[in-house]
Amino acid sequence: MEDSAAVAGLLWDKWLPAALRTLVAEMLPGGELDGRALVVWLAGVHDIGKATPAFACQVDELANAMRDHGLEMRSRQAMGPDRRLAPHGLAGQLLLGEWLEERHGWAPGRTGQFTVAVGGHHGTPPEHGQIKAAFAHEELLRTPGPSASVWRSVQHELLDVVAERFGVAERLGQWATVRLPQPVQVLLTALVIVSDWIASNSGLFPYFPDAAAQSDEERLASAWRGLDLPEPWRAEEPACTSAELFGSRFDLPADATPRPVQEAALKLARDMERPGLMIIEAPMGEGKTEAALAVAEVFAARSGAGGILFALPTMATGNAMFPRLLHWLDRLPGVRGQRHSVHLAHSKAALNEEFVDLMAPGGSITAVGVDDAVAFSPRQGVGRRRAGAELVAHAWLRGRKRALLASFVAGTIDQLLFAGLKSRHLALRHLAVAGKVVVIDEAHAYDTYMSVYLDRVLSWLGAYRVPVVVLSATLPAGRREELVRAYAGEGATTAAEMTDDTAYPLLTAVAPGGTAVRRRPEASARDTAVEVERFDDDLHVLADRLKDELVGGGCALVVRNTVKRVLETAQVLRAKFGDDRVTVAHSCFVDLDRAAKDSHLLRRFGPPASADGDRPLDGHVVVASQVAEQSLDIDFDLLVSDLCPVDLLLQRMGRLHRHQRGPGESNRPERLRRARCLITGTDWTAPVPTPVRGSVAVYGAYVLLRSAAVLLPYLDGGPQRPVRLPVDISLLVQGAYGRDAVVPDGWEHALKEARVLFDKHRDDQAERAAVFRLGEVGRPGRPLFGWVAAGVGEADDSRAGRAQVRDSRESLEVVVVQRRADGSLATLPWLPNDRKGRKRGGLELPQEQVPTSFAARTAAACGLRLPLQFSYAETADRAIAELEQLYLPAWQGKNSPWLSDQLILALDEDCQFRLAGFSLRYSPFDGLEVIRDRD
User: Fold this and answer.
1) Which run of H or of E encompasses 100?
2) Which of 593, 620, 591 is nearest to 604 (CA)?
3) N or C of the chain: less Cβ packing under 10 Å?
4) Which distant-in-sequence residues (6+ apart) come within 8 Å of 19 by Cβ?
5) Does pTM top 0.85 for this prediction?
6) pLDDT for the residue 155
């Protein structure tokens, strides 16, 4: 009890961000002194429930010693399963509540808001039914008969001593009238959990008699030095001009000026009365990421936030953001020269070399991802020093339940959405996000299912007064309104204020409980006129057209909506152009090949300064899936796209003439100096365009038809030709998603039928998402009882975890290796050397012993998520059964952390494999191809 209380005091003094200390303290009559005292006291009493028969009976020797002092109890066997009705957290909650009522005169309805921190310190606040059941079995709290008074006396004496020891005895009378907001109750619970976990670590707090030689003060100081938690970021509000700020943080040339959107976002952040939500809608390439970081710096300084969480749609975008975050941190006042914790938050972070470089030397990889496997040692100190700032992936903050507690985090949006999922230890996730500025990128990329969770998370973030920056290139006005209301409340704005405007770029800002304001900055001077043309969905016609277009050289991007169409298209184009002039990119590559593919695309098709030397001169076609829509800064002369939702089409158009190449695009081939987009993937000759089946399966017919409808005036010399970017972006998006649909003549029936299916699907998504969604923020003083009732249990960034906050089937993920002709296993032979020049291809993977750490890590970095065909129950079960035939006992357990419990898919020497009625073929050029076997 003393250790936990002492740790809680240090966490309050040295680790908890100022914003959270303020949130707790302002609810109490004594301010910050009361806040600290309350946290320390709750941590000190959190295990009072162990002073009960239900808990004490577990060890006979200790139980007998207690019986000798009049504390009678039945044996563990005699109590039977009833003992589980009073786990020590719940028992402690009941005892503390009783003590507050009897000793300090608290009203029964006022105790729960404080005592729930004790009841929930093992991750789940008690439910009303559990509380009632425990009350009905008083013998679990005190043995009936003469011993009952002895138990009561001991329990109350312990609580009296703790109250006196930590200085709250005289404060309890004033706290009796306090109504704690539910967010504060969550924070108190989380702080008790963290204090308990640290104090329970025998590596930091050795058990008696090992620590007998130290005083309590020495023991605490030694433990805190061993833990070595980096302190939170204490942001300093920048007083410099916007040009100076952006120039110093992002290494801009001396004569560079911020773009209008960046300058306006920074000014709006400075003009806001208090930090809140800011939505930045601006075209691709306008520097929204840099604007978000500049706004976050101002918001953090004014709010007392202690870090940043940058949430992105995919692991790939998270990996791309991580080095940018580190680069920014190295140039940030208040970080430079100090130690701060950083984390890359997704399930494959331990395979990211940038992140691994920050891990403490000597730390065990088992510290990544699994709390129970962490073997923390005080020797696990700091990681390597980066230029200017000492940024570490701290060992204690690398467990799956603790990772977000690091100060600076880049990760997938799932990490944020989990804060809206009823799950065990949810309070820790709230503690992690409540002390940060949260940046949400690519907000338009999240469907109805994910938005149900995102909106609920935003409502809690607003209650915590967490500053939030939302980034989107294209956001429907109705969705913008929903985000504002979720964060700031229903009174924040009205529909008319937020939807009757196609201004673009657009900044929207609102403080919690405030009224939304807008700013309309100009776009940067450069704009692009895109001529849009409908095109037949015929591969041979496409190949002939591209041959004509690229006769003088140039680079074309063909974006398909399914991997199957990517591979079919590439096969036909290679027959026309040759293998070396067609590149394939999609999601079905092993992780290392996917990373190499992204690097290849950036090197050959990136900005002029970085790619001109490698840019193909003789005509080249990249055939890609949706991976080309996000994050990659790639630039093409010609675009061909399947019909898709118009906001995504605009994202794809953002890869067309993205960078200026000479005056008037003179460095592009002459016939490709006008930006053109050919739209295919649909039958344009039908009375109503008919998208291909794969596109309908991915996006739904209604969204595709509405997108086609708003594009009609721009097609083939229509009255609004060409599409002008960024001028037409908001007009097209609002037309495709607004309440009043654009209905061309003759389309009425098709749109009506498609709308019925769309509404049914959207309602189904919302209904299913709501099952495990966290409830709304309750009124102040209402205890958190049942806060995560009927939840999912554990939630983490596993395949199953991600499926809880995304509307997707749980996919199968495998580690891909190769089986040689002699039966031995090896890593894939074509893998490139790592950054240190070490060979990764063809490494031996012995089957009778644990592979070397480097070979095992290389194999694990060849993870592959199998496509949708393998996510259906019957096929998935069959596939798992077949894959488990290659079960290698030597690769299991704690000695093989990289490969333990992984499904291994061993390609033959021709890189083929038969699985669950499908033939699989893999190559580093085309990725995975799946063909159903004929019966």
Assistant:
1) helix 88-104
2) 620
3) C
4) 303, 304, 305, 306, 434, 435, 465, 466
5) yes
6) 97
